[in-house]
Amino acid sequence: MLDGMLSYTSSFDPPGSLSTGMSCDMQAVFQPMINEDLEGEVRFASAVGPFSVPVRCTIKKCDMEVDNQFIDFGSHVVGQTVSWTITLTNKGALASRFSLDTSACLSPETSHVQMASHVSANTSQETSNPNTTSDSQSSSVSMGTGKLQAEEESQELSEHTEAAGPEAIPDTCVSTDVDAQMDQSNSDFGDISLGIVKEGEIGPLESIRLEVIFTPTIPGESKLDFHIRFSDLTSKPIPIQVKGVAVSVPVWVVQPSIDLKICMFDRLYQDSIVVQSRGSTALKLTFEVCPEMRKHMEILPKTGFIQAQSRFNAQLKFLPRISLSKDAMELFDEDTGVLEVPLTVLVAGQIVTFPPIQPVFQVFLRGEDCGGEAEPKTGPGCSCGAPKLLPSALDPEPLALDQHSHTNTHAVVKPVPFTIQAVVTSSELLFDRAQVDFGFCSVYQSVRSSVRLTNTSLLPQDFGFLGVPDFMEVQPNDGFGTLLPQETLEVDLIFSANKAKEYSFQLHCKSGINRDFPLSCRAVGVRPPLQLSHSLVQFGATAVGDRSTA
């Protein structure tokens, strides 16, 4: 028996008494007739009491989600183009069409406020009385009469709106004023636009990448709110918020984040830093490296001039040393090897004006009075309360200022920031032991010993044993090969003494960057007093029970 599921049939023949550990089969057939989720249970009766088996049948659904609902482009220079990709994923089993909707339909609260403020210029047919038509027609007779009637209609409509309450405001954006405001607000988002894919179909268990492009043209902050809407009625629209800040500076770094990929210690890496100028005059550039990285990083030239409407190329030299973890503890993660170095370019004349944090007082260098009436409250100075700057040891006779003004803004030189990123790794090849002792070895025999060679780097490295003596053999591949990152290889060292003496030597393993890793070896060659004519005795094919000689 199944409750709530009429399109379910079952085929079950009671097997009678079931012994311990035995089982029987029941066939269940479900033929859906309606597109709804159904739940029920199959009830059984047994000698020990009733029990039931729950049955659940669900329809195919859409389960939409995005990896990021808030996109912050940060600050970018006017004229650049930056893109951001969001991933739309359908985790359900039902396909659906989607579209990107940038028409920000106002919420009921916002619509209520805006319609109340613009009610004098917009009359709705649903809320107006029958006299509205005649009043609006008569308003065209004269300008003065039209204005008076519009004010009366505005007052009547506002009273009607207040009496009806929020329920009388429609949820959809039907007002032409509201649509005009929406169009105007959308035009403000011209710096932020959507990519090529604005609509399409997403299948079950599929993902689609959507692109958002930020092209700042006017200094200031830009925002864009849009929704991802679906044809499936059960899927709610997904809101996406985008914002970015445009900064107007004449000089900027074309590539604000330079990635040097994976680098090795004690190896030189170089890259080019391209600086672009939109200014109309030549400007002086000064590249600054933080003190922690001056032993490992250098930019040449340190100072230069960039011409108007042109580019300037500087050379970045990066030579990480073993002391990097101690010199730049805050910039370098020793566990992961990630290095992130913030650098700046100082541009002479690139000034940004900010509002003052506190009032700017007049500074008098020699105590000249500005003609104020107030008495000084804090030490000697101007009679209007401005402090006095006394001569110092560095500047015993500062120049005197005859005039002063209380300004509202102050200007500072704005540096151009950029970042250098890299993953610094070791280039070491390590043996599992420092010395190999072959012991006593007969001049008629060979002794094999195995060592493990490990690549500690995050990059693959070539290796080879060079200058191997005649009495030594290295396998596999005669001592040459390639080690993958963090790979360990077992190397066989075969020693064959040619004389009865003590051997003490080194095997040199060199990497692809010409680093030498020595391995010390020692052995004692002996000549036994008993000598056999053959070291291998080989018998011919012998039948079972037979005898053969050699």
Automatic annotation (TrEMBL):
Protein's UniProt name: Cilia- and flagella-associated protein 74
Sequence ranges of Polar residues compositional bias: 115-126
CFAP74 second Ig-like domain span: 66-249
Ranges in a coiled coil: none
CFAP74 third Ig-like domain mapped to chain residues: 251-352
Signal peptide: none
Disordered as annotated region, ranges: 115-171
Keywords, comma-separated and alphabetical: Cell projection, Cilium, Flagellum
UniProt feature, compositional bias: Low complexity: 127-145
Upper taxonomic lineage: Eukaryota, Metazoa, Chordata, Craniata, Vertebrata
Gene3D superfamilies: Immunoglobulins
Top-level lineage group: Eukaryota
Segments forming domain CFAP74 fourth Ig-like: 431-525
